[in-house]
Each structure stands twice: as C-alpha cells, then as structure tokens.
Design a protein that fits this description.
Elements (H helix, E strand, L loop, with lengths): L8 H10 L1 H8 L18 H6 L15 E2 L10 H12 L4 H14 L10 H30 L1 E2 L2 E2 L6 H10 L3 E4 L4 E3 L1 H13 L11 H31 L7
Parallel strand pairs: 1-3
Antiparallel strand pairs: 2-4, 4-5
Helix pairs in contact: 4-6, 5-6, 6-8, 7-9, 8-9
Length: about 250
Amino acid sequence: MLRRPKLNKRIRRSLLLDSPARGLRALAIPKIKKETAAPETLGKSKLEKETGTVNDRIFEVLPNYGTVENAKALPPLATAQKFKLASAAVFDWAAYPFNGTLAAIAQAKNDPKEWGQGWGAYGRRFGASFADNGIGTYMTTAVFPSLLKEDPRYYQLGKGGFRRRAYHAVNRLFVTRTDSGHERFNYSESVGNAVAAAISNVYHVPSDRTASRNASTLGFLILYDGLSNELKEFWPDIRRKVFRKQTP
C-alpha cells in the first residue's frame, strides 16, 4: 500500500496561497467605515452649518433664521453669509402668507385710499408690505452689519428667570455683538430700520410720504424685531413643554 508523501510546512503554505479562494481573500478590499455627522449638525441645512445657527421653526411654521442655541461665541460671519441669512428670511415660504395677511388688513381698512379696492389694489398693498419687511431685514441683517462689522445673529440666553430672559430679548434691539466679539450699541437695528423706512417713500403713495407714516413704519419694524426676539428666546421652552421635543 502506497503512502501519501508528507509535505513540509513551506510547500503547504505555498499551495494554500496559490488556491483561488485564498487569493481572493488576500485581495479582499477592507470595509470603509462611513463617517457620521456630529449630533449637533444632524438634519441641519448648509446655511445653518455655515453660520452656527438653527432654523427651528417657531410653532413649526414661523421662520427662525439667525438664532443661536447653546453657544456663547461663534466665528464671525462673512459678508456673503450675512446676505444669505437675510435672503433666507425674506424669501422664506412663510413670508408670503404673512405679508398677504397684512395686505388683506390694509385692504379692509382701504389704506391708502388712493389705491382703492380690487385685486390690483391688493397686489400693490402686498408688494408694499413685502418691500417694507424685506428691505428692513436686508438692512438690519446684511447691509449695515456688513458695513459696521456687527453680528446679526440672536444668541439665546436660555437660562434664568422669565424677567431676565425677556429683558435680554428686548435688550438685543439696542445692544449687539461686533464681529470681534465685543458688545456695543446696535446701530444696525436702529439705523437700518430708519433707512428702510426712508426708502419706503419711493413706492408708497404721495399722501403717505410724511414724517408720521415714516415714524410708524420704523416703529413697526422695531416692534416686529422685538417680538421676534422674544419668540426666539422662549421657543425652546415651548417646544419642550408643549410639543415634547428636546432638540430642534
């Protein structure tokens, strides 16, 4: 009876390496692990990631651009980023029904009388309202913050009692951060809205080109920004307690 010759270890290793299966296993490409985004950036848009903000819609509807949650300091915004924030707010889908409602109220009051009634008059009122708010936003969020090196973002206080936080929201109308991280008077808010009110004389009827109408437009724009700040400040609390959502 013939015996099968024994193979030494070196020959056996060579035969194993020569086998097709062994060769394929040797050439197998290692699995590449997928990189996962950090929890704080998951679900955020490109604009939010670039600016360190969160557009956590207030009551799931109202735009909330330029809001900073849980951060005391961020890198300064470039001029292009300030204009992107302004554009996002001006042309957000919610701006159209908002300005449409303001136009409907003016239509019901027949204000101004020179425009009369009808769809054409409603269109002019809608355009005027859209321009008032849009120009105001560009002036206070992009144009003057870029010229004066101011930070247009709203930094939530997030902690403390109601009075302290409500005061903080109103105070941001008059005090802002500069691009260098210091605080000073908020020139962009007051001067920007004043310029927006002055520009509105171009498209309002002659009878509306008065100091009182300009003052009321300026007051409305500042009041709107103040209410917006209050909602930005307390929305996270409402979101957690009413909508049971811990994160945006």
